[in-house]
Amino acid sequence: MSSLSFSDILNKASVFKNKNVLSPHYYPPEMLYRDHELRTLMELIAPAFKGVKPNNLFIYGNSGCGKTAAVKLVLQKIKAEENTRVFTTYMNCRVYDSRYKVIQKLVGDFIIELPRTGHSMATIYEKLLDWIEDDDQGKNLIVVLDEIDAVKDLDDLVYTLTRTNDDLKKGSISVIGISNRIDFKKKLDARSKSSLCEKELVFHSYNASQLSGILEDRIKASFNDGAILHGALNLASAIAASENGDVRYALSLLLWAGELADSKKLKVVTEKEVEDARKKADEDKSFELVSGLPQHQQLVLYALCLSDSEAYSKLVEENGDKYYFSGHVYEKYKSICRKTKVEPRSSRWYREYLHDLESLGLITTIESGKGVRGHATLICPGFDPNKIRVIIEKRILGD
């Protein structure tokens, strides 16, 4: 081991040319199959270059359909114009998840001399207005809020940002909100909705043919020539198309397949490596979903995972799947809330959480059949409960 060097590792034979091109954090300089969406975005923003406030915009679509990549590409085009009137900022609301954090970041991005902490909401709000108005014509600020539905006080944030324009004598703020959930506006009250005046843009999922074209384009930059069989590419495209057309999922399949090929010292990636990678990618995707869940949904899932270790709570085992009483899981959830000093939500909210978890594929629910007294909902974990339990313990419980 002492004679091993980094050069030995770096010089090992590999099917890869540049792995970074397959990363979910890589944004291509051009996008395939999104001309209409890019044009719509640019036409909506264009008035800002003439000092006219653009409409607010909400963008919807499933994960991996190019929403964030398209917006970031347009933001790059705005910066390339070197216009002193239009300013942009992007933030992921999984990190900036409150009105204060969002406004604080806006001020921190553009008003360097102001310390980032220790100021009231009113102070940083006034500082933002002063900065926008601090030139002859005023500045036009475009705020991109990715995963906007993750903001805890979304009503307050939307109302503050949209009504800011009433307090400005010159310049403007426009909001581009990005969400996987087309129904997230139902969370807003009437006051916030009436202040939006927004347009909407839906990104439809990629089909198998489009995914194949995108993968083929990425393969040229990420793999050595001839390192992937055409059948392997088609299989990755078909698998991703069946999973809501998620291009990030398709790219993960290729990345894992290539790494499997490297581990087996193969020179070519075949359908076998893609199929094996599918199992790994599915597991990683589920863990990513779990990590991004709101607190109470994680606690409900954690309660279900703990039920898996309690033999008496198992109701039925069918084809290897274990089902549990919904009522038992709810009681377990409330017990966990009490132990972690979190106020448990009502049974109505609990049913909403189950619906959301099922829509993400993290659980399966069925109604009880013969042999069960009364009417009951049964719940089955979608993935290995022990692995999910460990994730939640680290994220929520801090173990």
* CATH topology assignment of the largest domain: Rossmann fold
User: Could you give the order of the helices and strands?
Assistant: HHEHEHHEHEHEHHHHHEEHHEEH
**Strand line-up across the major sheet:** 2-3-4-1-5
Q: Strand share of the residues?
A: 5-15%
Q: According to CATH, what is the class of the largest domain?
A: Alpha Beta
Helix proportion? 40-55%
Description:
This protein is of the alpha/beta class and 399 residues long. The protein has three domains: 35-202, Rossmann fold (3-Layer(aba) Sandwich); 207-290, Helicase, Ruva Protein, domain 3; 293-397, Orthogonal Bundle (Arc Repressor Mutant, subunit A). Helix content is 49%, strand content 13%. The protein has 15 helices and nine strands. A five-stranded parallel sheet has the order 2-3-4-1-5, sandwiched between helices. A four-stranded antiparallel sheet has the order 6-7-9-8. Strand 3, helix 6 (154-167) and strand 4 form a beta-alpha-beta unit. Helix 12 (295-307) packs across helix 14. The two termini are 34 Å apart. The mean pLDDT is 87.
Précis, in short:
The protein has 399 residues and is α/β, with parallel strands linked by helices. The protein is built from 15 helices and 9 strands.
